[in-house]
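User: Teach me something about this protein's shape.
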Amino acid sequence: MQRKLFDILACPIDKHYPLEMLEFNVNGEVIVDGVLICSQCSRYYPIVEEIPVMLPDSLRNKKDDLAFLEKWQSRLPENVVHGGKPWSL
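Assistant: First, the predicted structure itself:
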């Protein structure tokens, strides 16, 4: 995800802006892996291989989200790992 796109993203559920972004893997101005967090509704949106996964809960893949949480749990805030929506560990 291009870093400049971050400035225009809002939570698709409650339209909260701005989102919080944590970067795990960066290549210049491109965020390869990271997460977007909505402080309003406690939802997290993974950034995987440069693509932010900002789907409504009903379209998200539980298996992929849980794998993301397990992979990055040491770098994610506790409230995302154990209380984030739509799923947590």
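Now, about its shape. Strands lie at 20-27, 30-37, 44-48, 51-52. Residues 3-83 form one domain. If you'd like, I can walk through any region in more detail.
User: That's plenty for now, thanks!
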